[in-house]
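new request in #modeling-help
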Amino acid sequence: MSTYKPSIPKGTRDFLPEQYSKRKYIFNTIERVFKRYGFKPIETPAMELLSTLTGKYGDEGDKLIFKILNSGDFLQSVPTTTYEKRDNISFIPHICEKALRYDLTVPFARFVVQHYNELSFPFKRYQIQPVWRADRPQKGRYREFYQCDIDVIGSNSLLNEAELIKITDDIFTHLGIDVIIKINNRKILAGIAEVCGIGDKLIALTTALDKLDKQGWDMIEQELLSKEIPEDAVIKIRELLVLKDSITDMLDAVSEFVKTSETGRTGIAETKEILKYAKLLGIKNHIEFDMSLARGLNYYTGAILEVKARTLEMGSISGGGRYDDLTGIFGLNNMSGVGISYGADRIYDVMESLNLFPETVSSFTHVLICHLDQYTLCYCLPLLQALHQHNIAAEIYPDTVKMKKQLSYADKNCIKYVVIAGSEEMSKNVFTLKDMSTSEQWLLSLDGVIEKVRS
Amino acid sequence: MSTYKPSIPKGTRDFLPEQYSKRKYIFNTIERVFKRYGFKPIETPAMELLSTLTGKYGDEGDKLIFKILNSGDFLQSVPTTTYEKRDNISFIPHICEKALRYDLTVPFARFVVQHYNELSFPFKRYQIQPVWRADRPQKGRYREFYQCDIDVIGSNSLLNEAELIKITDDIFTHLGIDVIIKINNRKILAGIAEVCGIGDKLIALTTALDKLDKQGWDMIEQELLSKEIPEDAVIKIRELLVLKDSITDMLDAVSEFVKTSETGRTGIAETKEILKYAKLLGIKNHIEFDMSLARGLNYYTGAILEVKARTLEMGSISGGGRYDDLTGIFGLNNMSGVGISYGADRIYDVMESLNLFPETVSSFTHVLICHLDQYTLCYCLPLLQALHQHNIAAEIYPDTVKMKKQLSYADKNCIKYVVIAGSEEMSKNVFTLKDMSTSEQWLLSLDGVIEKVRS
């Protein structure tokens, strides 16, 4: 073997069989729940037109989109003046018309508008696909990662928000992760801003609040003051944020605070209605009303949701909310939607840390058939066929090599049973079956082997 | 709605719920069989380093690789002389270090070399992922499509070839597609070339034979003559190709023809051994020995396999073979491998044409709960919860709208049962359940509804 070692682009990963199987377990669990609630699957292409994505994620986001170089004579389309200036930003639209999707939300909005006449509304979709971002890679942050999204589009009912909470509750109950489901409402934040006399500074407020978890109040206070939010407003906001009562008491306190703001009152009423439905649907995990929850994305207009693992310090593993005009960017107005996204990679990390994957997830072959020579090989093939017909994962060691090597293969691959047949077994029309974990062994007929390994 | 209509890159596709579910049915069937035979799943990133892919698919292939533009100041890395020349080919390596994978074979070879110490050999892997090619889009040919590959690497045993035939047989039996599995061997082709005295023109011969199906013999004859293959050799090859006997008779005839070539004799012996194993494993579909089967890829060194649907004019839906030195390109020699690839998109087209998808594949929600007002909505939520607990796909129409609209939603979404509850049902603690296909209806308790819709 030469010393040259091939590699893959930074921030991307290969998945070996065990990792693949654990990830698949997460996807399957999530998908099973999605389907049970009547969500329907769609898939969109990895590549979107660059024009579909540009301008949807802010200037910083635009830089993180992976662009695909046009095929053929790509330089020909660059106007001479642009070529002479040698400027990256103005070069891009001439040499790239496609890009890798950055999230599943914008492609979904594009999908709804493009297939409007083929869909019936309210449309409940789920989508589990990778997305790509040219972010600086770091622990837990990758350049290729999976999102698992559900959205209901074309319905204003707050029952949808409650159902997203219930789905979240079901998914994490199935996965065995104890979570806190945090809820807030953009309208409550707008109400607070209005009452504090900083209604025009809502985005500055939400951007700052979003960092509370990571940076602590002192930093946030500095940021709010630097954004010219008056000190008395900052003090009032702080008083609300330190409330740590029951969810009902907190809602009452905030309700009292925003009573002069119509938007604020609507936000409180919406939150109460969502919680009422959630209660009727029977939520097992803890729901928390968190006024600091703002989520950076400015397209949210109503409820905001975020989920964290309870027993582990880690960022959110899921988040979403209500948006009133997402398809507007593609020309379709008045389509209110609400959705939530589950981050499979972070969920994987949580489950690994807490050792939550069932052992059976990464078990592969159940029976290995070993052979001594051409004769025993042929003698064993009907057994192999019978095992497969009974849906038992079984393989025969393909090469005629020493028994020690074949048994070592069984060992390395954690195979529970091995079958061995020599001339004696052949003459009696039986097989030796051995349990690799206990070293017990039996002399059995073909049917006897099947029965034993199935039990 | 504005007149602007968003779109997606040519050659790519959105999958709506029904299409998604049918595709998923194919993937699941294939994956279940792979697992039963002891193959283990891996995944590799969508992006590989461009240097990993370049030069592996020939000059034409290199042009069809989708390249990813480097992030940031990509023009800075272009040397001034290259920039001044304005030449596409020499530009690319300076502005693109990543590319989308073109197939699953080269990434797999890279994977084996990179993770050599983490794997145990023989290593049997499967991989089901999309690949991207900048081919000219046409019917049945897309720029993003899925491959489903299995390979055994690190084993010389011909049992592997037989097992690939058996897996193919199982997959298409499960899918309900009647297929012909064609087999040939590169060594037989080499033997024929050797006997005809054109041993140095093997690639010209295989390249021409590969087109026999599409172009017919006359065209092939012209091509062979134009490649300076002598007329007497062309006549001999034709005589072999027109043989249409039983598989045994054909092998005997070819065996006689190549008896003076050691390579040819080996090819015949290998084919007979593979067929012996295949027989012991119990193949249901028709196996055909096809001397014209050559498959363009020059990395094959032994058996070649190809699968076609029997009742339909369509290209091959699966193909593969033995390659003795695939990992050699990444510095790891002496790792013989054998593999086969199933084309999910073509299999989909075959199944659609022959109407082979089970009806249940694209059934989604089983029960729709309709409601009249806030009271009946809340009354029905515990029923929704109970349905989900019993793993029944159920949803409640989220908005309080006219019953007609709710029933029309059930209709459009092919939902079998609807539940309706008004004040009378509420007072008796029951629900009206209606079968949408027969219009039958029943007055049932919560448990009664569950029992009825489960049966």
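bot summary: Chain A touches chain B through 113 residues (CB under 8 Å).
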